[in-house]
Design a protein that fits this description.
The chain folds into 2 domains: 2-27 and 142-287, Rossmann fold; 32-130, Rossmann fold (3-Layer(aba) Sandwich), CATH 3.40.50.1100. The protein has 9 helices and 10 strands. The protein has helices spanning 32-45, 62-74, 88-96, 109-123, 137-154, 170-182, 228-242, 248-261, 284-287; strands at residues 2-3, 16-22, 54-58, 77-83, 100-104, 128-130, 161-165, 187-193, 222-226, 267-273. The protein has a 6-stranded mixed β-sheet, with helices on both faces. Strands 5-4-3-6 form a 4-stranded parallel β-sheet, with helices on both faces. Helix 1 packs across helix 2 and helix 1 packs across helix 5. The longest helix is centred in the middle third of the chain and has 18 residues, at 137-154. It is globular. The model has no long low-confidence stretch (mean pLDDT 96).
């Protein structure tokens, strides 16, 4: 957890703290390690993974990488459906872990990868175990039992506002439920792209996307729409002003945290940066912009 300073400028009142949890310190490099480990553990405990079973899911990258790391350790085979426009770094990491990658139509984004994985699972149910991160309760439970408890402990119970971006929605759903078990008055704010045509990799514009089965819209006290260019600008500023090399979705999370914090007189606003910027270095549009 780090407290943000310079990147906030004079937008945030002095008595409002803004903190970010840096999830690239997980062993697989992203927040998705939590959900992937929970999902695979649950499948193992239920006896659903046999010696010939091939694990199957869709991903925009980070969950697939987490699955790949864990599958390698546990001796499982893994097939992943991935949009063809996922960046080079992610594809190389997946192949390094020995993952079988099926590339899907880039114009269909993560939804296209989901549809392909569902079709494979339906066609060959004896071959594949479809992990389905978007509808698997083990996803959000990992955050309820882990992420929320860490945030509560790391802020010494002072957290007043929780802000998170939406992809599978597991981080927001599970962490919100966990935090409210400690203090029901904590406000939870979700952040998603402000348009169906956006450049915020890994995030979903829920009004026009396949809505994850684990999503619970009643949990959000407020839903914010993050603009792509403003979010990307914040990614660059985090690197240049805070020394934090973050991924793209972190910019949207920070945009949301600032929007919340600037309206307060006092409080402790906490957000989460899902991954680091090393997985986006080939994105010239991001790093070579002014």
């Amino acid at each position: 957890m780090v407290r943000l300073g310079r990147v906030l400028g004079d937008l945030v009142p002095a008595r409002v703290e803004v903190w970010a949890k840096l999830e690239w310190f997980n062993p697989g490099g992203s927040v998705k390690d939590r959900a992937a480990w929970g999902i695979i553990q649950a499948a193992e405990a239920a006896g659903r993974i046999g010696p010939q079973t091939i694990l199957l899911d869709s991903s925009s990258g980070n969950t697939g990488i987490a699955y790949g790391m864990i599958a390698a350790v546990r001796g499982h085979r893994l097939t992943l459906c991935l949009p063809a426009n996922a960046n080079l770094e992610r594809k190389r990491i997946l192949r390094a872990y020995g993952v079988t990658v099926i590339e899907t139509d880039p114009l269909e984004g993560s939804d296209g990868a989901i549809r392909r994985a569902r079709a494979l699972a339906a066609a060959e149910p004896e071959t594949y175990l479809y992990l389905d991160q978007y509808s698997n309760d083990a996803n959000w439970i990992a955050h309820r039992d882990g992420t929320a408890a860490e945030l509560w402990r790391q802020t010494e119970g002072r957290i007043t506002h929780w802000v998170a971006s939406l992809g599978t929605t597991g981080t927001f759903v599970g962490t919100t439920r966990g935090l409210r078990s400690f203090n029901p008055s904590i406000r939870a704010i979700s952040v998603e792209p402000d348009s169906p045509f956006h450049g915020l990799e890994g995030l979903k514009h829920l009004a026009t996307a396949l809505v994850p089965g684990i999503y619970d819209p009643s949990l959000a006290d407020e839903r914010l729409g993050a603009p792509t260019e403003a979010s990307l600008a914040l990614v660059r500023r985090l690197a240049r002003e805070e020394g934090l090399l973050t991924g793209i979705s972190s910019g949207a999370a920070l945009w949301g945290a600032i929007e919340v914090a600037r309206r307060l007189d006092e409080g402790v606003v906490v957000t989460l940066f899902p991954d680091g910027g090393e997985r986006y270095l080939s994105d010239r549009h991001l790093w070579e912009a002014a």
